[in-house]
Amino acid sequence: MGTDSNRVLIEMQRNEALKAELKEKQRQERLKYGRAMIEATFGGGTVAGLPEKGVRQVDVPRQRGQDRGTSYVEEYTLKPGGPAKTFTGIGQDFYDNYQKSLSDFYKPNVEEQFQEAKSQNIFDLARKGLLRSSVSTDRAGDLVRDKAEADAKVNSEIEGQVTALQGDVRNAKQKAYGLLTSTEDPTTAANTALTEVNAIQTRKPNFDALGELFASALNSYSTFRNAQAGRAAVASIPGNNPSASSGRTYQ
Fold first, then answer.
1. Where in the sequence is the domain holding 83, given as residue range(s)?
2. Nearest alpha-carbon partner for 140 in 63, 214, 247
3. Which of 192, 162, 163, 161 is nearest to 38 (CA)?
4. 149, 4 in Cβ contact below 8 A?
5. Residue 46: helix, strand or coil by DSSP?
6. How many CA atoms lie within 13 A of 187 on its CB side?
7. Sequence-ordered list of residues with C-beta below 8 angstroms from that of 16, at least 6 positions apart, any chain
8. Lowest CB count within 10 Å: 1, 55, 191, 222, which one?
9. Which three-class secondary structure string do you get for 202-239?
10. 73 in a structural domain
């Protein structure tokens, strides 16, 4: 009798251990499926549906020649896996298009302002009879310098927005992974990932106005003439030496 009781106890313990093992296997499968869904949602790809499974103990009736029946544990399917799901994800083409949208907005604006500034500069110099003067050379150099600064500013703005977008994608992905870890529910995590990706894919870049990019170069001559007039006024005061005034001489 004692032997039978021990045998029953050992069998029960073995079955409980098998149940725990199968449940842990199913948990790991859910987590693996959730990770696959998150990766596919963000990076693109296809994921097969995950079947729902359960664990049950099957009792085997006593057979001829046995004192009692036995039992064993098995894993069974509660619900077949759904259809495979395919996602486009957020690929390099998304970032490239985002960057192109910014470039198409900013760079023509810089070029348009540059050409307009050159035309305005030529008109102003011609009106003052300074087209062949050192003023013309200086102002042309100032415009080229400001153009290089404007290009650098625009490139920095574009790079900054793309980098911020990539950071938001990483944070959204980490959010989905965190939810999967805390809930161990792949469906909830996958739905969250999809919501985040949809929000990012419909986001528009920030098109901030550039303002006047070449005002300093166009105003440089006026600033010089005002300073020159001021020095001349000071020099006209009795006791002042005109030759002591400083500054670059424009021809």
1. 2-87
2. 214
3. 192
4. no
5. strand
6. 6
7. none
8. 1
9. CCCCCCCCCCCCCHHHHHHHHHHHHHHHHHHHHHCCCC
10. yes
Counting the structural domains of the chain, the total is 2
Across 182-198, b (16+ Cβ under 10 Å) vs e yields eeeebeebbebbbebbe
Per the CB < 8 A criterion, the answer to whether 121 and 216 are in contact is: no
Residue with tokens 């020649």: 65
Place of tokens 């950071």: 167
> Under a CB-based contact definition with an 8 Å cutoff, are residues 70 and 8 in contact?
no
Do 77 and 105 sit in the same domain of this protein? no
Q: What digits encode the pLDDT tens for the residues 112-138?
A: 999 999 999 888 889 888 888 888 888
Tokens linked to 106: 């900013």
- The whole-angstrom separation of Cα 110 and Cα 210 is 8
Report the distance separating Cα 216 and Cα 138, nearest Å. Answer: 12
Distance of CA 5 to CAs 2, 57, 71, 120, Å? 5, 19, 14, 104
Q: Which two three-digit tokens encode residue 131?
A: 């087209």
Q: What is the pLDDT of residues 179-199, one digit of tens each?
A: 999 999 999 999 999 999 999
Instruction: Give the DSSP H or E segment for 156.
Output: helix 134-183
What DSSP designation does 247 have? S
What predicted TM-score, i.e. pTM, was given to this entire model?
0.73
pLDDT of residue 161 exceeding 90, the answer is yes
Q: What is the CA radius of gyration of the chain?
A: 38
Burial class (CB in 10 A: 0-12, 13-18, 19+), 163: exposed
Tell me whether residue 251 is in a domain.
no
Q: What's the token pair of residue 148? A: 């290089």
